[in-house]
């Protein structure tokens, strides 16, 4: 899926000259945590989130530095902070370097942007004009709307094992030898050693995701839970 498939099109926006107090009341009234700032042509010029409003003189939450540290802080930085903590208009407090996407941006890239930039929403633009927004809740709704494909019960055991081993071979966390997987009547048996319970869970999920698998049986030893072999030769994968 792409941004255009999940984005909210009825986007709440404000203008650069919107009073900050009005922005705050809008966020509270709509139950949202951020709002794009657009100019008269509909171009995104900034974004205001709750994080942009944490440091306010009215609340006494502006940054405080000792005299020595303040002396070494550039005047431009100090002036910018003053504007953000005392500013009365949206343009005073908004984040100007806004990360945007277009309708065709894959959701995987949207998720990467959110994670890397520590942001909760990505405006979607078309020819520089705002057409929608993708928030974390949009991604969750898309996830909730997905339905697993029905699994066929007529898949050959050998094919199941082949598909599972192919999936494990593509995963950097998997180091299991082939004899760790046995498939009988659609039931996958996992044998051998894993380093952590998370690795075991990953193996189980990989097996459960193969079409035709009826169940997964775990016979593995988790080394983080067992600091030594339980019996001679148990380290053989």
Automatic annotation (TrEMBL):
Residues 156-224 form the BON domain. The keyword DNA-binding does not apply. InterPro entries: BON_dom, CBS_dom, CBS_dom_sf, Diverse_CBS-Domain, UCP036990_CBS_BON. Keywords: CBS domain. The keyword Zinc does not apply. Residues 7-63, 94-149 form the CBS domain. PANTHER family: CBS DOMAIN-CONTAINING PROTEIN CBSX3, MITOCHONDRIAL, REGULATORY PROTEIN. This is CBS domain-containing protein.
């Amino acid at each position: 899926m792409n941004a255009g498939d999940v984005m909210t099109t009825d986007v709440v926006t404000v203008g650069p000259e919107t009073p900050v107090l009005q922005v705050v009341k809008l966020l509270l009234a709509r139950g949202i945590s951020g709002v794009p700032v657009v100019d008269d042509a509909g171009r995104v010029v900034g974004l205001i989130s709750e994080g942009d409003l944490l440091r306010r003189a009215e609340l006494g939450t502006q940054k405080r530095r000792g005299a020595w540290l303040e002396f070494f802080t550039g005047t431009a930085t100090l002036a910018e902070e003053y504007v953000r903590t005392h500013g009365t208009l949206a343009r005073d407090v908004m984040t100007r370097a806004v990360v945007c996407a277009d309708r065709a941006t894959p959701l995987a890239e949207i998720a990467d942007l959110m994670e890397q930039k520590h942001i909760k929403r990505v405006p979607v633009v078309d020819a520089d004009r705002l057409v929608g927004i993708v928030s974390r809740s949009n991604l969750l709704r898309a996830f909730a709307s997905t339905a697993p494909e029905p699994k066929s019960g007529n898949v050959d055991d050998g094919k199941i094992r082949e598909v599972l081993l192919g999936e494990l071979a593509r995963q950097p966390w998997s180091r299991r030898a082939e004899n760790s997987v046995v498939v009988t009547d659609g039931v996958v048996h996992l044998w051998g050693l894993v380093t952590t319970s998370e690795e075991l869970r990953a193996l189980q999920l990989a097996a459960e995701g193969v079409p035709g698998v009826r169940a997964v049986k775990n016979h593995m030893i988790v080394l983080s839970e067992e600091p030594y072999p339980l019996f001679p030769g148990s380290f053989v994968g």
